[in-house]
Task: inverse folding
């Protein structure tokens, strides 16, 4: 929290998580932050499932209120581990609100060793389109 003669700003986060001994992890959170004279409220939840020893599935949703507008978001993520050195992560997400839609997704491959090698491919589409690749 900060305050000067003209402006007051706040940023607060609250989260709780529950880990089931059989594998799944559930979490919920509530965030508040200021943007100019308005406040942004976000409620989010996440479920992480470890279905197999080397497979993790993740699903998340959020609801954001900014001014008199509401935005809904969702994300799916899948992680596959092959041995102790190779990891693949794929995710896709979408945000909707005020008649607009934004999509995004990534594919990441990481090879661990004496030096770590990572490959990242990203695709985003919303107001503008963005593609990137990193090695």
Result:
């Amino acid at each position: 929290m900060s305050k000067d003669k003209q402006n007051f700003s706040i940023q607060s986060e609250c989260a709780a998580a529950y880990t089931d001994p059989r594998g799944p992890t559930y979490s919920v959170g509530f965030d508040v932050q200021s943007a100019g004279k308005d406040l942004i409220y976000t409620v989010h939840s996440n479920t992480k499932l470890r279905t197999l020893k080397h497979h993790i599935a993740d699903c998340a949703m959020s609801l954001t209120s900014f001014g008199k507008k509401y935005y809904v978001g969702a994300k799916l993520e899948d992680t596959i581990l092959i041995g102790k050195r190779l990891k693949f992560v794929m995710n896709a997400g979408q945000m909707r609100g005020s008649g607009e839609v934004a999509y995004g997704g990534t594919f990441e491959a990481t090879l661990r060793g004496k030096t770590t090698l990572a490959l990242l491919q990203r695709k985003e589409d919303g107001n503008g389109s963005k593609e990137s690749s990193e090695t």
About this structure: The CA atoms of residues 19 and 32 lie 25 Å apart. The radius of gyration is 18 Å. The mean pLDDT is 86. The chain has one domain: 2-134.
